[in-house]
Structures are given as C-alpha cells and as structure tokens.
Design brief:
about 425 residues; alpha/beta; Aminopeptidase; Alpha-Beta Plaits; 18 strands; about 35% helix; globular
C-alpha cells in the first residue's frame, strides 16, 4: 500500500508477470503444476492418475478390438472349415446310401425294368438294373415267383401282362422290392433281336452246358462262345430242363457278355438307335463295379409245377445294398397296407396301389368291404406310431379322411377303405 498526496491509501497496480506466471494464475485450484520427478499429493494429483488410467483402458480396448477379436474370429473360421472338411469326407462313405434312400430330393434314378414277352404274352425274361455312382447292379427274377398283386392276390410274375394294365408289372415289382422303377421296357421277339443285333457277335462264356426243353438240338457245350443275336436271344428266354434257377445261370452269362459289348461306344450308340428305351443300360455296362444276383426266393413247388416265393427279409437286405438310390422308404421301413374296395369299381385296388406304393406303402392285402356303397373314403391306422405313415399315404392318394381304429391289427399297419367320394367306377383318385 502507498500513501497518496491527500492522505488516501491506494492499491498499486500489479506488475505484468511472465506468461508462465499468468498460466499459473489461471490454473484452477487443486491442479498446481508438479515439478518433474516430484511425488504427487493424495489430493492435488488424483486427476492425472485418473487420466493415465483412462488412457490405459482405452489402450486395452484398442487391443481387444484390433488384436484379440480378429484372432478369435480367425480361429472360429478355421474350426468351421475343418468341420466342413470332416463332414464332407464322412458323407462320401456310409452316408451315400442314406442320401440315396427313399425321398432324396433331386436325385436321378436310372432303374430299368427289362422284360421280354413271348408269343403267348407271358414274361420269360425279367431283369432290373441300376447304378449308384460307379457301382452297377443287375437283378434276375425267376418268372415263376408268386407275388401279391393288388385286386388279384398271389400271381406269377410271368402272368402279369395278361392280368392287368401296362403299369401292373412295374407296380408289382416296386411293391415286392420297395424300389422305385424309373422305366419299364417290354420287348417282343423282334425287339429283343434288334437290341442284341447291335452288339453281335456277343461273347458268352457258359458256366454250364445248355439244352433247350422240347428240342432235339445238340447240347451247347460249356465254355466261351460268340453268339449271334438270335442265338443270344434263345439263350435268354428259352426253357431248359431242370430248375428255372439253373436257367438263370445261363441268362447271367449272356447278359454279362452283352454288357461287355455295350462298353464299346459304337455298339452302345447302335443299340440305343435300335431300342431307345435301353439307354439306362449303358450306365450299368460302364460301371467299374458290377454285381449280378438272382431275387432271393424259396421253392414252394406244388403239384409238379415249379413256383417260388420271395424271402422278404433277404429281399430287404439285398435291395438296400444293391439299389440304395431307388429305395422307396428307409429308416422305419414301409407300412403294410390293406386296400378294401367299397365301390365295386373294377381294378380299384390296382389304381390305389399305383398311388401309394411310390409313397412308401407296401400292399400286402386287398379285398372288398362286406357291402359296396361306401360313401366316405377312410385311411385307417391302428397305433399312434402309424399316424404319420397313414397321413403320408393319404396325401399320396389325394383324398380321404384319417381315422384311428379302436382295435389294433397285427397283420397290417394301415387300411384304406375306398369310398365313392374319391373313386367312381373306372375313376382315378381325386376324380
């Protein structure tokens, strides 16, 4: 303070300090500048410590997002890739049969049912072929085999062309095997000769000597032969003394030689020109792994006539391995179906069978209701476990109502009672 001339005390103006001093004056309380190397106080230096902690947290966050997370993502991607490789390698093996099982979407079927009808209209040659990848299968049928035919009951395979429409043979074979047949080719004598002519002469290595029943021709010795078309056809379809199973040994010898010739591209083209329906036979000829078998049957010969019946369990086992691409149903198997005609329409059971067999049903019984005049079609199941199968068959049928029976039956899983709401005389399902 200073005394002025009049005795009044005045404050003297503060001198201008340095920039540093002015900054220090503007610094808020509690944030005094700390000399380098000094120890912070508990109160005044808390903010710098918090600032460092914040910077450390931000650094850790940057490390998390820029280093740790990309590493985790990379490891997850690698694990997914490894899993995909493992699954793809496992699918190439046993899962192949599952993929080709019944209902596989988008699959290509090339099962060919080849039949020859003699002058009397009966079948004397019946062969099913198919391929799965590089594997081919050829199944020979004893035509004297007795099978369940819708509307007709037990019938011989040889007689089917004379018992129903053109589709009856295919429907019946599908019902017996549980295999979808993609094409049926029926040849007469001229058709078989033309099919074989493109491949003649055919190398045939006979495993046994051949004599034709009722013929005075000399016995054809066992061993290698080069057969003309007519000779090969005769070996395929003519009766021989003894069992039909013995005759099928000769049939196999001829088919093996024919398939070997079909490996030749020019022979294959000429064969398809002569019989376009045999194009699927070429895939079997080219198969690097081919098996030829006879339908598993047992003899039930009565009254001197040779007859056979399929061995059901052996048939299931065989087709699962031989025709996995074409199985109509896998897993729980095929539901056994009874078809009862409630309208009196002729051949109605065959019409219904043609609808439900491709959907996985196995027709084991057919018959009529006590009295015709049923108005409402019913698809009846007997156990809760059979509801899904009954629903699937009803959808394939395109009509009817689902119902559960009060009493379970042991011989069938589903009964279809055909009524006039879905089936008129001579009508198809849904018309």
């Amino acid at each position: 303070m200073a005394q002025g001339a009049g005795g009044t005390v005045l404050d003297e103006p503060a001198p201008h300090g340095s920039r540093r001093e002015r900054r220090e004056k503007r610094r808020p309380e509690g944030r005094s500048r700390r000399a380098p190397g000094s120890v912070p106080s508990e109160s005044g230096d808390r903010a710098p410590e918090e600032s460092r902690r914040a910077r450390r947290v931000r650094g850790e966050q940057r490390s998390f997002w820029l280093v740790l997370m990309p590493t985790v993502a990379l490891l997850l991607a690698l694990s997914v890739l490894v899993g995909a490789v493992i699954r793809s390698s496992s699918d190439a093996g046993p899962a192949r049969a599952t993929r080709s099982g019944a209902g596989a979407a988008g699959r290509t079927l090339n099962t060919l049912l080849l039949a020859h009808r003699g002058a009397d209209g009966r079948i004397d040659l019946l062969v099913l072929t198919g391929t799965t990848g590089s594997a081919g299968s050829v199944l020979l049928f004893p035509v004297a085999t007795q099978v369940e035919v819708p509307s007709l009951g037990p019938q011989s395979l040889a007689d089917l062309p004379n018992q129903g429409d053109r589709g009856l043979l295919q429907t019946t074979v599908e019902n017996v095997l549980g295999v979808k047949v993609s094409k049926t080719v029926e040849l007469d004598d001229a058709g078989l000769d033309s099919a074989l002519a493109a491949a003649a002469p055919i190398p045939v290595d006979l495993h046994r000597a051949v004599k034709f029943a009722g013929s005075t021709d000399a016995i054809i010795a066992a061993g290698p032969h080069r057969a003309k078309a007519a000779e090969a056809a005769r070996l395929l379809v003519s009766k021989q003394p003894g069992s039909e199973l013995d005759r099928l040994v000769t049939v196999q010898d001829v088919i093996d030689g024919w398939l070997r010739r079909l490996r030749n591209p020019s022979v294959a083209r000429a064969t398809v020109r002569a019989q376009p329906g045999l194009v699927d036979l070429l895939a079997v000829a080219k198969a690097s792994d081919r098996r030829t078998d006879t339908l598993p049957v047992e003899s039930v010969t009565t009254g001197g006539a040779e007859e056979f019946e399929p061995r059901a369990a052996d048939v299931v086992h065989y087709v699962t391995g031989a025709f996995p691409q074409a199985l109509l149903r896998v897993g729980t198997g095929r539901p056994r179906v009874e078809i009862l005609n409630g309208t009196g329409a002729v051949g109605l059971a065959q019409t219904i069978a043609a609808q439900i067999i491709p959907a996985g049903g196995q027709v084991t019984l057919t018959g009529n209701v006590g009295e015709f005049g049923v108005t409402k079609t019913q698809v009846v199941y007997y156990r809760d476990s059979g509801r899904a199968a009954a629903t699937r068959l009803m959808k394939a049928l395109g009509c009817g109502a689902l119902a559960k029976a009060d009493t379970a039956l042991g011989v069938v899983d589903v009964t279809i009672i055909a009524g006039a709401d879905c089936f008129r005389t001579g009508a198809s399902p849904g018309t």
